[in-house]
Amino acid sequence: MSELTTDTAVVAGGVVVGEDGLARPTWASTDALMREYYDTEWGMPVRDEQGLFERISLEGFQAGLSWATILRKRPAFREAFLSFDPDRVATFTEDDVERLMQNEGIIRNRAKIQATIRNAQATIALREEGGLVDFVWSFQPMATPAPSTLSEIPSSSPESVALSKALRKKGFSFVGPTTMFALMEAVGIIDTHLVNSHRRGSSGVWA
After folding, report:
1. Tens-digit pLDDT profile for residues 112-167
2. Are 63 and 179 in contact (CB under 8 A)?
3. Does the annotation mark 37 as catalytic?
4. C-alpha distances in angstroms, 71 versus 37, 61, 74, 75, 157?
5. pTM for this one?
6. CA distance 28 to 190
7. HSE toward the beta carbon, residue 111, CA cutoff 13 A
8. Residue in 49, 54, 59, 159 annotated catalytic
């Protein structure tokens, strides 16, 4: 066992045991905000339209950046995009795009902002086919990964590739296979918690 900091230690499987005695992956072991997110939110089922639309939006903004950056900016994102209410975001105009491009609290990427508006419109359209939640969750695989180390966690899967293609056909963008795999991890569709993590199996989706 080797010391990571004065109050955490790395153990077998790449998890880190904190001073609270709980084992977490390295990415969730040092930053307080990331640790709270990991302990309470990441991997838990999201089955409401607004919540899922928010996650798809934030995963899109995260592309090329760290999740910690997005997490710190999430309050500003929620304010800027009206709590990610699809009905309200779908009405945004080019004036709103310009307004958001001046908002230093969010990621000021024009293509991603415009994609969020289009994705809101696509979310509304999907209601005629059962809705975004049922559509996304229909790509849940028959089995979930059981990684012992971070290196064993894939960056995409056949299901995330299929989900990406299906969403694009419905008018969504910034929903690539890697981004959709991250979404599936974050909202509980798959469980990629390390087998030695205290969160493994906690979502109730997978035995």
Report:
1. 999 999 999 999 999 999 999 999 999 999 999 999 999 999 999 999 999 999 99
2. yes
3. yes
4. 9, 11, 5, 8, 25
5. 0.92
6. 18
7. 6
8. 59
